[in-house]
Automatic annotation (TrEMBL):
PANTHER family: HTH-TYPE TRANSCRIPTIONAL REGULATOR GALS, LACI-RELATED TRANSCRIPTIONAL REPRESSOR. This is LacI family DNA-binding transcriptional regulator. Residues 4-58 form the HTH lacI-type domain. GO terms for molecular function: DNA binding. InterPro entries: HTH_LacI, LacI/GalR-like_sensor, Lambda_DNA-bd_dom_sf, Peripla_BP_I. It comes from the Bacteria. CDD domains: HTH_LacI (cd01392), PBP1_LacI_sugar_binding-like (cd06267). Keywords: DNA-binding, Transcription, Transcription regulation. It comes from Actinoallomurus oryzae.
Length: 329
């Protein structure tokens, strides 16, 4: 069977070909009764718009690039943060009748591939996720003049709109909670120094420790379970008297729990542990983990709204976090 054409839909609906084109391309200047007639004809004939031709007319692809500056081994690891963000962004875009294109850019070749794809007009917008340090991608993509929003505060000084959670405030709440539990020597396992989420969480820890007149004790990880275990071993060797640890991610906190268990330290009796993220594993760790819940779904919704808005880029949006107290503290 031949594929129904635009002309066939026009004949069935009793309207012009131009009217059908305006309806299927989402134009607003169509009378309601004509739109209803066209949509009825589309359904009856099983007409499917030619996406390539429609893109030429509307200059829209209905596709959004989600660009992640991490290697596949990190994105598709045991860290549920990435899958949670990808799922949330996909759901929000689907509700807006858009599709997401996942692009990984952790190398120079990856950066070049993303730049070519975006500059080629294949997407209507870009969402940046997990940017590191002096990342060249935001600057190069901005030259394509494609709308762009960052998931989290960008490191660079480029005026890229962004939505984020209150990383600094969440860290402050966790450390203040540890102090309220009577802990005296509170260490932190921070994330990668070239990522703003890690910088802000470390900043929140330092602020509370300074206000309490405590000496900061810092070990650095990379948000993975393995780095949390390694950092905890280093802390126990260098600072054996610590009685609490704030880890800047739940996976690092879970790694720290394993190290403490192997060292014969009881949690929370000997060492209290708090994390950040509130991943599903946090509620099932041994013991269940006190953590800071970040609003993954709400941040994704904010990003999609900002990206698809016809208004000028808004001021950054920082959404609140929530301290979830469990048995580890």
């Amino acid at each position: 069977m031949r594929r129904p054409t635009l002309e066939a839909v026009a004949a069935r609906a009793g309207v012009s070909r131009a009217t059908v084109s305006r309806v299927v391309n989402g134009a607003a200047n169509v009378k309601p009764h004509l739109r209803t007639a066209v949509m009825r004809a589309v359904e009856e004939l099983g007409y499917i718009p030619n996406s390539a031709a429609r893109s030429l007319v509307t200059r829209r692809t209905d596709s959004i690039a989600l660009v992640v500056s991490e290697p596949p081994s990190r994105v598709f690891s045991d860290d549920p943060f990435f899958s949670a963000v990808i799922r949330a962004v996909s759901q929000e875009l689907e509700a807006a009748d858009r599709q997401v294109i996942l692009m990984l850019a952790s190398s120079a070749a990856g950066h070049a591939r993303v730049e070519r794809y975006v500059a080629g007009g294949h997407v209507d917008g870009v969402i940046l996720l997990s940017m590191h340090g002096a990342e060249p991608l935001p600057a190069s993509l901005s030259r394509s003049r494609v709308p762009m929003v960052s998931h989290g505060r960008p490191v660079a000084s480029l005026p890229v709109p962004y939505c984020d959670c209150d990383n600094r405030g969440g860290a402050r709440a966790a450390v203040e909670h540890l102090i309220s539990r009577g802990r005296r020597r509170i260490a932190t396992i921070s994330g990668p120094p070239d990522m703003t989420a890690a910088q802000d969480r470390l900043g929140g820890y330092r602020e509370v420790m300074a206000a309490a007149g405590r000496r900061p004790i810092v070990a650095t990880g990379d948000f993975t379970r393995e780095s949390g275990a390694t950092a905890m071993r280093r802390l126990l060797a260098d600072e054996p008297e610590i009685d609490a640890v704030f880890a800047a991610s739940d996976l690092m906190a879970v790694g720290a729990l394993g190290t403490l268990r192997a060292a014969g330290r009881r949690v929370p009796d000997d060492v209290a542990v708090a994390g950040f993220d509130d991943i599903a594993l946090a509620g099932f760790s041994e013991p269940p983990l006190t953590t800071v819940r970040q609003p993954v779904t709400e941040v994704a919704a904010c990003i999609v709204r900002t990206l698809l808005s016809t208004d000028p880029p808004s001021a950054p949006v920082i959404l609140p976090t929530e301290l979830i107290v469990r048995e580890s503290t």
